[in-house]
Amino acid sequence: MARTFAYCRVSTTGQPTENQMLEIAGAGFSVAPQRVVEETISGSTQASARPGFARLLERLEEGDILVCTKLDRLGRNAIDVRSTVDALAARGVRVHCLALCGVDLTSPAARMTMQVIAAVAEFERDLLVERTKAGLARAVAEGKTPGRRWSLSDKQRADVAKKLAAGAKVYGLAKEFGVSRQTIMRIRDGASPATA
Q1: Which residues have CB under 8 Å from 158's CB, separation 6+?
Q2: Which of 188, 171, 191 is nearest to 180 (CA)?
Q3: Of 21 and 101, which is predicted with more confidence?
Q4: DSSP 129
Q5: How big is the CA angle at 56 (ends 54 and 62), to the nearest 5 degrees?
Q6: Which among 88, 96, 78 is positioned nearest to 56, based on CA atoms?
Q7: Distance (Å, rounded) from C-alpha 4 to C-alpha 157?
Q8: 42 annotated active-site
Q9: What is the tens place of the pLDDT at every residue in 185-195?
């Protein structure tokens, strides 16, 4: 008989997973408490690198069902989600996502949907890279220096450099000028703010 598991992930400790379990129960999935895996970890962490998800993978067997509320619970991006779903499908585990009307992501129709989502995600990522490069090129063409700006004026940086040469300590100068020690060290080392 198929067992149903739920994977509930939140990003910060202040967020509860109860709402996800309420959604899962409301969608008609009955999950025994011992089959609920709750995890507090950033969504930017790849699914295979999450301790709770790794433990869940050890428990899942052929014929089992895994339910989650949204695709981003399963992975850091569309490609990661697709890889996770494909790996589970290869083991005979069905994956249901409530955000996609509870559809079984391992079904042929859902696999096609996942391919479209992955293609759109890749397209958006490529557009973002293009826009970033174009913006940097435009800034350079306008004579701007890309990267972070100094938190101190030219005069203040010159004062810091003089005081460092006179033997002042990094910590004291950071406190005096109201900046981080790293800022003072970058001035000492002759680095630009963009290299921080």
Answers
A1: none
A2: 171
A3: 21
A4: H
A5: 115
A6: 88
A7: 62
A8: no
A9: 988 887 655 44
What is this structure's pTM? 0.60
How far apart CA 79 and CA 64 sit, in angstroms, is: 23
Burial 65-79 (b: 16+ CB within 10 A, else e): bbbbbebbbbbbbbb
Give one DSSP letter per residue of 37-100, joined into a string. EEEE--TTS-GGG-HHHHHHHHH--TT-EEEESSGGGT-SSHHHHHHHHHHHHHTT-EEEEGGG
Indicate the residue type of 127: L
Nearest to 24 by CA among 100, 88, 97: 97
For residues 116 and 90, the answer to whether their CB atoms sit within 8 Å is no
Rg from Cα positions in the chain: 25
Instruction: Say whether pLDDT at 51 is over 80.
Output: yes
Closest by Cα among 2, 36, 128 to 77 = 128
pLDDT band (50, 70, 90) for residue 196: very low
For the stretch 187-191, contacts whose Cβ atoms lie closer than 8 Å and that sit 24 or more positions apart, written own/partner, are: 187/152, 187/157, 187/160, 187/161, 188/161, 188/164
User: Could you give the CA distance from residue 13 to residue 33 in angstroms, rounded to a whole number?
Assistant: 20
Q: CA dihedral in degrees (102, 106, 112, 113; nearest 10)? A: 30
d(CA 86, CA 92): 10
What's the gap between Cα 33 and its chain centre?
Answer: 28
* Structure token digits, residue 162: 């003089």
